[in-house]
Structures are given as structure tokens and as C-alpha cells.
């Protein structure tokens, strides 16, 4: 870990702890999150942890830039990694099917696997939630096994269904609501991520883990899932 402070705005600092994305970073990122929240107290407007950095948005009426920089350095001086076991594990049921996951065959072929093997591999890892962004409730998760890593689509879709589960490079994610997107879609979940976010209680938080579970079409429908093929939404 190499601490660097970078100016993000007149009232914001970027704390850079790492240069490479790694699940092991999160123990340090979450420890820094706790330390900085405590140090800035009421002067903190927002604190956004991510893969390798944290963004500190502070009240510049309460403290000057030099004071904020000094406060951040002091808060992180003797930082020790947090216990990542404190993050919540979320089990997310997914209906993997080509009708709602049109890239299933391509991703499987690229990895030299059958579709069934791909599904088993995607479900066989607990993914770390690195950051929230793009849309309310959207969690960027990883890291996907290297041989499953797949580049984003050359031409993004204009309409990706809510609940779509996809892969882009070594990341995986769930689209919380109908939106454009260029990830490789493998299946769909009925878990209403956007509804949690709209209530101000996002289901996923940085440091949490997500485990996907393959379910049948009947189970998906019973949970309220929409089986409309993705192509009809494109």
C-alpha cells in the first residue's frame, strides 16, 4: 500500500492506496473508510470507496484544503487492515438462459467450456463488491476467473433488462433497472436492487460478498422474474 493524496476539487480529495485492482485491497479500503469518517466527523459531506481509492468530499467552509490534507494523512498513518469477514454475504438466484442471457454461448466458447460449465464456474466464486455506481444499486464485483474474462460488447445495447447479470473483463454485475449497457449478459435475477436503492438502503455495499446461484425458469417466475427475451428489449 502506497498512500497518495490527490486533489479532486476545491472541496474534495482522492486518497489513492493501490494501483492494481485486487480483492485483498478491500481490507485496507474499508479500514481507511472507517478512519476517515471518524477523523472528518461533521465536516464530511460524502466518502466514496472504490477499487483502489477513496474520494473525500468535505465542507470547505469548515476546514481549509491544507487542514483536510493533513487530517487525512494523520488518520491513515497507522492504518491496519479491516476484518473483511464483517461484510455481508448475499446469495443471488439467477436464471441462466440464452433467452435472457444471449452471451452465454459466446462467453462459454471463449473460455473453452460448455454453457453448463460456465454457469458452474460463475456460481463457484464469492465476488467482492468493490464499488457502487453507474446506476442506483449497481455494484461492481470481482474478480471473475481470468479464463472467464470477456471484453465488453463492441456495440452496447440501448436497453438491458433490469436484473440482467453480466461480465465485462474480470468484473461481474447486475443491472438494477432498464438501462443501456455493454456487458456480456449471462442471465437474469428477480432481486429488486433498484427498489432497495430507492429506499436509501442499497442491498450491496463495498466490502460485501455476492454468491450467484443457478435456478430454473419455474423458480425464477415464482420469484416474480420477467422472462421477456432480452432481444425484444434491445
Automatic annotation (TrEMBL):
UniProt cross-references to Pfam families, sorted A to Z: CT_C_D
Q: Which residues form the Carboxyltransferase domain?
A: 3-206
Q: Which Gene3D superfamilies match?
A: 3.30.1360.40, Cyclophilin-like (2.40.100.10)
Question: Cross-referenced SMART domains, in alphabetical order?
Answer: AHS1
User: What Enzyme Commission number does this protein have?
Assistant: 3.5.2.9
The signal peptide here is none
The question of whether Transmembrane helix is a record keyword is answered with no
UniProt GO molecular function = 5-oxoprolinase (ATP-hydrolyzing) activity; ATP binding
Q: InterPro entries annotated for this entry? A: CT_C_D, Cyclophilin-like_dom_sf, PxpB
* Coiled-coil regions listed: none
Q: Does the keyword Ion transport apply?
A: no
Q: Which UniProt keywords apply?
A: ATP-binding, Hydrolase, Nucleotide-binding
Superkingdom assignment: Bacteria
The protein's name in its UniProt record: 5-oxoprolinase subunit PxpB
Q: What is the lineage of its organism?
A: Bacteria, Pseudomonadati, Pseudomonadota, Gammaproteobacteria, Oceanospirillales
Amino acid at each position: 500500500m502506497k498512500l497518495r493524496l490527490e486533489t479532486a476539487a476545491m472541496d474534495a480529495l482522492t486518497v489513492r492506496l493501490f494501483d492494481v485492482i485486487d480483492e485483498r485491497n478491500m481490507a485496507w479500503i474499508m479500514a481507511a473508510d472507517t478512519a476517515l469518517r471518524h477523523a472528518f466527523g461533521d465536516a464530511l459531506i460524502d466518502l466514496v470507496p472504490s477499487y483502489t481509492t477513496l474520494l473525500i468530499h468535505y465542507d470547505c467552509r469548515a476546514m481549509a484544503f491544507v487542514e483536510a490534507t493533513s487530517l487525512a494523512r494523520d488518520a491513515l498513518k497507522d492504518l491496519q487492515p479491516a476484518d473483511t469477514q464483517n461484510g455481508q454475504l448475499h446469495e443471488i438466484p439467477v436464471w441462466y438462459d440464452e433467452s435472457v442471457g444471449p452471451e452465454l454461448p459466446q462467453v462459454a466458447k471463449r473460455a473453452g467450456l460448455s454453457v453448463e460449465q460456465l454457469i458452474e464456474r460463475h456460481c463457484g466464486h464469492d465476488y467482492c463488491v468493490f464499488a457502487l455506481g453507474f446506476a442506483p444499486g449497481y455494484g461492481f464485483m470481482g474478480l471473475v476467473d481470468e479464463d472467464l474474462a470477456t471484453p465488453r460488447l463492441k456495440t452496447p445495447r440501448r436497453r438491458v433488462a433490469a436484473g440482467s447479470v453480466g461480465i465485462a473483463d474480470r468484473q461481474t454485475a447486475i443491472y438494477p433497472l432498464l438501462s443501456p449497457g455493454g456487458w456480456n449478459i449471462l442471465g437474469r435475477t428477480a432481486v429488486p436492487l433498484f427498489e432497495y436503492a430507492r429506499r436509501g438502503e442499497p442491498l450491496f455495499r463495498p466490502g460485501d460478498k455476492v454468491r450467484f446461484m443457478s435456478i430454473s425458469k419455474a423458480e425464477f417466475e415464482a420469484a416474480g422474474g420477467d422472462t421477456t427475451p432480452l432481444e425484444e428489449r434491445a
